[in-house]
Every structure is written in structure tokens, then in C-alpha cells.
Design a protein that fits this description.
This protein is of the alpha/beta class. It folds into 2 domains: 142 residues, HAD superfamily/HAD-like (Rossmann fold, 3-Layer(aba) Sandwich), CATH 3.40.50.1000; 75 residues. Helices cover 45% and strands 11% of the residues. It contains 9 helices and 6 strands, in the order βαααααβαβαβαββα. Strands 3-2-1-4-5-6 form a 6-stranded parallel β-sheet, sandwiched between helices. The longest helix is centred in the middle third of the chain and has 18 residues.
């Protein structure tokens, strides 16, 4: 059986159907500033990292003809802190929901003994909340990397290169699975063989094998699909 030496998995939108929670949190935060937040805004921030999301939201709050509300946040970091607080509350109270085929795929990897590593732009404080719930259902992941644990987050290749180093493998022997253009860019530029599962945003990146869903796929079939 031809298998990768590890499977590197994005979290939001790839493993978990958590993007609705992020949209809810973003809408609540922007509503507190009296501003709308659309699906187009969400799509612009898809895949993070949180720093970029904070800058985007900060610019939206302070973009009305140069007027700065007295209630406006003093910096993008304030936005990030407020957003994290809302999202964390949702992640703690809403049961996790797997993306189609994702749970079976992780189970398949664990049954085959293929190491699994979550590579996410979300911060560790959020990752720890959901990874405990996920592990109870599919077994423990071999490793995980959060967006606040690398010098450069997605779309930079650093997260995926770091994951391969943690697992002691060559990145070209890893199968990466992503759902956003930002994440796909990170995985492809790192040198991983990449599956892109289109979700909210269309995938136009070069170098990835694009699917509509993970349903019906196995680690072996996905690894085979990425062969050039």
C-alpha cells in the first residue's frame, strides 16, 4: 500500500464545519461597533491568520470617511482579543461538527498508523478546546501547530515546514489537506502534496488536487490523486 509518511490537516473548514461559528463571532463583534459583516467579508478573511483578520476588521471599523468612532478599538490587536473571546465562548458551548468525510479520513489514518498533525491558523487557546473533543471521537493526533506558534502563519510555508520537522519527515512525503486559498498556498509552497477541498471560496491555486468533498476517499486514494 502506497501511503504518505504523515497527513497534515487544516482545522477550520477542512476537518470541522466551524466557519459558521467564525462568521457568527465576526458578525457579533462588528455589530457591537454598529457595522455589518457580510459573507464577502468572511470570505476575504478565510484561512486567517488572525492578525490579518484583525487588520481587516480594524480597517472596516475606521474606514468611514476617515472618521474614527470614540468607541473604536485602539489597534488591530484589540480586535483580535475581542474576536478570540467570542469565538472561544462558542467553541466551548457548541458541539463540534465534522466536515463531510473528514472524521472517517482521520480514523482511516489512525487505523493505518499514519501520523496526523493539525496545522491551523487558529491560536492555541482555541485549538486546545476542539482538539480534546476531536480526540475523544477519533483518537489522539500525533501533533498540532497553532497560528500563534510560528513566526509566519499561512499563506507562508512555515507552518507546514514546521509540521514536517516536528514529525521527522520530508515535507514532500506528507499529504496536506486544506480548504482555503490561503491554506493551499501555504501547503503547496512548503512542498507538500496537497488536496484542496473547495468549501466557501473557490480554489484557483496551482499545484493542488481539487475535490468537492472528502466523502468516499481514503488516505491511499488521496495520496494517489496527488501524484504528478
Amino acid at each position: 500500500m502506497d501511503l504518505p509518511e504523515a497527513v497534515l490537516l487544516d482545522l477550520d473548514g477542512t476537518l470541522l464545519d466551524s466557519e459558521p461559528l467564525w462568521l457568527m463571532a465576526e458578525q457579533r463583534l462588528m455589530d457591537s461597533y454598529g457595522l455589518p459583516w457580510t459573507q464577502e467579508d468572511q470570505q476575504a478573511c478565510l484561512g486567517g491568520p488572525l492578525g490579518r483578520v484583525g487588520h481587516y476588521m480594524y480597517s472596516r471599523v475606521n474606514s468611514a470617511d476617515g472618521y474614527i468612532s470614540p468607541d473604536a478599538p485602539s489597534s488591530p490587536n484589540v480586535i483580535v482579543t475581542e474576536l478570540l473571546e467570542i469565538v472561544l465562548g462558542l467553541f466551548k458551548t457548541v458541539p463540534i461538527s465534522w466536515r463531510p468525510g473528514a472524521r472517517d479520513l482521520v480514523t482511516n489514518a489512525h487505523e493505518l498508523g499514519v501520523p496526523t498533525c493539525i496545522v491551523t491558523a487558529s491560536w492555541r487557546v482555541l485549538l486546545d478546546v476542539v482538539i480534546e473533543q476531536m480526540s475523544q471521537q477519533v483518537g489522539n493526533f500525533s501533533a498540532s501547530i497553532a497560528g500563534d506558534e510560528v513566526a509566519h502563519s499561512k499563506p507562508d510555508p512555515t507552518p507546514y515546514i514546521t509540521a514536517a520537522q516536528m514529525l521527522g519527515i520530508e515535507i514532500k512525503q506528507a499529504l496536506a489537506i486544506e480548504d482555503s486559498p490561503t491554506g493551499v498556498a501555504s501547503a503547496v509552497s512548503a512542498g507538500a502534496r496537497t488536496i484542496a477541498v473547495e468549501h466557501i471560496a473557490p480554489i484557483t491555486n496551482q499545484g493542488a488536487h481539487v475535490l468537492r468533498s472528502l466523502e468516499g476517499h481514503t488516505i491511499e486514494s488521496l495520496w494517489s490523486a496527488t501524484k504528478t
